[in-house]
């Protein structure tokens, strides 16, 4: 079997996750490039197939080796952990939060065991996780903890633009305090290794500026002068191909044109705005530094439209596409059981 095998936890049952999984796995583009294994609940997926109005047949399996590589077949590992009658579509639910965590947990187990090549995740809800007594704020933290990866690297990919993030879920004030020379050096080193693992070995990484016009040599802030410039100088002495700081109002455009192979965004929204303005639905998150490849849609549970059959599967399809594209670069130390 030459196709990569991708596990897809179906996300929060009260959100659009199950619906977009059904729509994506009914798409011939997806079935042509990957063998997908949904991780979820049979009853939830039966409901999602009806909502999505797709001619799919569920094939219950216990392990990926039992999956059928046929159009119109949705291979499902059924955890049988929730019933649609026990929750309301589009509403925060502890039952759904707990169930969504268990789907992710199973997908990680499969990936760590070498039974799948990658994991492509669907939306979960932070409030539902909390209500279900799941002590994680989101996917990245779950994957980090369950794989023993202390600080996973998030990378966005949209078209040929790749964006890494020096800081993630902290306040803007705290993010500015975290723009330090040593942190930048550490991140560029790790981001470069992540790119190499994805097969990206050529090109230069750019460091985005923090302040307007990268501070204009201290006129609008000292972070660039005191932290970013020294970090870039040290990295160049270490042999890394890196430039910066480059004004954030132009660096993402330049990277899109191919001048840079990636950009290190200094805070969450700086990179998110650039990627999602370019193409909201096709912005895909790739979590680097894990023992395996993980991609994800970069939108939420969309409770306002859950259950209405109108959710777009474009991002889910793209997440599977990116996983299939990069999976061959992740060399296994194991053999699949067929």
Give descriptors for this structure.
338 residues, 38% helix, Isopropylmalate Dehydrogenase, twelve-stranded mixed β-sheet, alpha/beta, elongated, 12 helices
Structure characterization notes:
This protein is an alpha/beta fold and about 350 residues long. The chain has two domains: about 1-150 and about 285-338, Isopropylmalate Dehydrogenase (3-Layer(aba) Sandwich), CATH 3.40.718; about 160-280, Isopropylmalate Dehydrogenase. It is about 40% helix and about 15% strand. The chain is built from twelve helices and twelve strands. A twelve-stranded mixed sheet has the order 3-4-2-1-5-12-11-6-7-10-8-9, sandwiched between helices. The protein is elongated, with a radius of gyration of 20 Å. The termini are close together. About 50% of the residues are buried. The model is unreliable at about 335-338 (pLDDT under 50).
Rg estimate, integer Å: 20 Å
Strand order across the largest sheet:
3-4-2-1-5-12-11-6-7-10-8-9
Strand percentage lies at 15-25%
Number of strand elements: 12
CATH topology of the largest domain: Isopropylmalate Dehydrogenase
Q: What is the helical fraction, as a range of percent?
A: 25-40%
Quickly give the CATH architecture of the largest domain.
Answer: 3-Layer(aba) Sandwich
Mean pLDDT: 93
CATH superfamily caption of the largest domain = Isopropylmalate Dehydrogenase
What is the CATH first-level class name of the largest domain? Answer: Alpha Beta
Number of helices: 12
Q: Gap between N and C termini, in Å?
A: 8 Å
Number of domains: 2
* Shape, per Cα inertia axes: elongated
Instruction: Spell out the helices and strands N to C.
Output: EHHEHEEHEHHEEHHEHEHEHEEH
| Uncertain spans | 333-338
Structural class: alpha/beta
**Describe the biggest sheet?**
12 strands, mixed
């Amino acid at each position: 079997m030459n196709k990569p095998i991708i596990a897809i936890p179906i996300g929060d049952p009260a959100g659009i996750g199950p619906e977009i999984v059904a729509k994506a796995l009914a798409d011939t583009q997806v079935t042509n490039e990957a063998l997908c294994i949904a991780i979820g609940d049979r009853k939830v997926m039966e409901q999602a197939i009806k909502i999505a109005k797709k001619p799919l047949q569920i094939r219950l399996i216990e392990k990926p080796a039992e999956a059928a590589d046929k159009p119109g077949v949705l291979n499902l590992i059924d955890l049988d952990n929730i019933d649609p009658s026990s929750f309301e579509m589009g509403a925060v639910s502890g039952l759904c939060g707990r169930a969504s965590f268990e789907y992710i947990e199973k997908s990680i187990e499969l990936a760590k065991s070498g039974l799948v090549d990658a994991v492509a995740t669907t939306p979960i809800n932070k409030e539902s996780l909390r209500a279900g007594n799941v002590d994680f704020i989101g996917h990245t933290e779950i994957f980090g903890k369950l794989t023993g990866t202390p600080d996973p690297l998030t990378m966005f990919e949209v078209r040929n633009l790749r964006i890494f993030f020096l800081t993630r879920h902290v306040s803007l004030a705290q993010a500015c305090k975290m723009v330090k020379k040593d942190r930048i050096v550490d991140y560029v080193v790790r981001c470069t290794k992540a790119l190499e693992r994805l097969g990206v070995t050529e090109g230069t990484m750019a460091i985005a500026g923090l302040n307007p016009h990268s501070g204009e040599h201290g006129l609008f802030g000292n972070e660039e002068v005191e932290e970013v410039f020294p970090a870039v100088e040290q990295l160049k002495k270490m042999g890394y191909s890196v430039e910066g700081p480059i004004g954030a109002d132009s660096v993402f455009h330049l990277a899109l044109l191919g001048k840079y192979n990636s950009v290190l965004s200094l805070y969450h929204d700086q990179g998110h705005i650039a990627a999602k303005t370019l193409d909201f639905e096709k912005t895909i998150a790739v979590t680097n530094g894990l023992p395996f490849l993980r991609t994800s849609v970069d939108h939420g549970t969309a409770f306002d439209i859950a259950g209405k059959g109108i959710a777009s599967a474009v991002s889910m399809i793209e997440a599977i596409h990116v996983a299939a594209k990069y999976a061959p670069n992740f060399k296994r130390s194991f053999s699949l059981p067929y």
